[in-house]
Amino acid sequence: MQVMEYHNPVLLTETVDGLNIQPNGIYVDVTFGGGGHSREIINRLGENGRLIAFDQDKDVLQNKIEDPRFLLINENFRYIKRFLRFHGIKEVDGILGDFGVSSHQFDVAERGFSTRFEANLDMRMNQDANFSAYDVVNKYPEEKLRAVLSQYGELRAAPGMARKICEERQESKIISSDQLKKALRRFLPTHREHKILAQIFQAIRIEVNQEIEVLKEFLLQTNEVLKPGGRLSLLSYHSLEDRLVKRFIRNGLFEGEPEKDVFGRMEVPFKRIGKFVIPSKEEIKKNNRARSAKLRVAEKL
């Protein structure tokens, strides 16, 4: 079976090092993709170690690792606890997450993730899902569309963009990425076109795949499925994700402050391990998509 082309994993050594792998431990890679992180984890496991991987994208099944210690679950990692319990696993020694969109997803034109290609508005990570970018662009009311572009794309021109999309779709449905670009042409100055388009596509993609809700659901479950001393090793690629990861590691919450014990000490489930890590200039030169990555590691108390 042919392995599909995926990018070299970002911060591969550092991310797997963060798990502090024990040879006979049980580990989870919640973003299997091309399997680069998973293969490195398996290389460090003993014969009694185990690795469970998650990925909702059917394309990744072609990258499945043939190893008795490995299990690939073709599901969204928001269901991590449910599927670990189903397979008889109550606690694990470490969880790795690389929350970037894979190069394969960007490079397959018909998936609609990339601003480089003419494609139908899709952007579904799970190809069986009924909801796509087409629905966001053509069915959301103006106010909701504005909120998506503002919150997830951090676009100052979100109100004008949302209004323009609604005007254009009254004439005819916006079906393709090129139609969307043409509709928003006046918001795309030549010197910033690619950056703004990337923000627009990011916003729609996050909404289609519920990425922020999924990340929150996942993080809250990690405290339940990790053993004391177990590690989280998490790679984020934009500020929205990284803020959630940072706050969760610090407080065990996404908003507000944790409760304090009778001595006034905050009761938190994790401790931070080291400072966040970013790719070297050399790695970014080899893989430009690594440029915005941030790795944070934590240990369950």
Q: What's this entry about, in short?
A:
The chain has 301 residues and is an alpha/beta fold. It contains twelve helices and seven strands.
Q: Can you give keywords for this protein?
A:
301 residues, alpha/beta, Rossmann fold, DNA polymerase, domain 1, 2 domains, seven-stranded mixed sheet, 39% helix
Beta-strand residue fraction:
5-15%
Q: Uncertain spans, ≥5 residues at pLDDT below 50?
A: none
Strand line-up across the major sheet: 3-2-1-4-5-7-6
- The DSSP helix count reads 12
Distance between the termini: 42 Å
Main β-sheet description: 7 strands, mixed
Category from helices, strands and their pairing: alpha/beta
Q: Mind telling me the C-alpha Rg?
A: 20 Å
CATH architecture annotation of the largest domain: 3-Layer(aba) Sandwich
Q: Supply the number of structural domains.
A: 2
Helix/strand order: HEHEEHEHHHHHHHEHEHE
Query: What's the average pLDDT?
Result: 92
Q: Estimate the helix proportion, in percent.
A: 25-40%
The global form is globular
Number of strands: 7
Q: Quote the CATH topology of the largest domain.
A: Rossmann fold
CATH class of the largest domain: Alpha Beta
CATH superfamily placement of the largest domain: Vaccinia Virus protein VP39
Report on this structure.
- It is a single chain.
- By secondary structure, the chain is of the alpha/beta class.
- The protein has two domains: 182 residues, Vaccinia Virus protein VP39 (Rossmann fold, 3-Layer(aba) Sandwich); 99 residues, Orthogonal Bundle (DNA polymerase, domain 1).
- The protein has twelve helices and seven strands.
- The chain has a seven-stranded mixed β-sheet with strand order 3-2-1-4-5-7-6, with helices on both faces.
- Helix 10 packs parallel to helix 11.
- The mean pLDDT is 92.
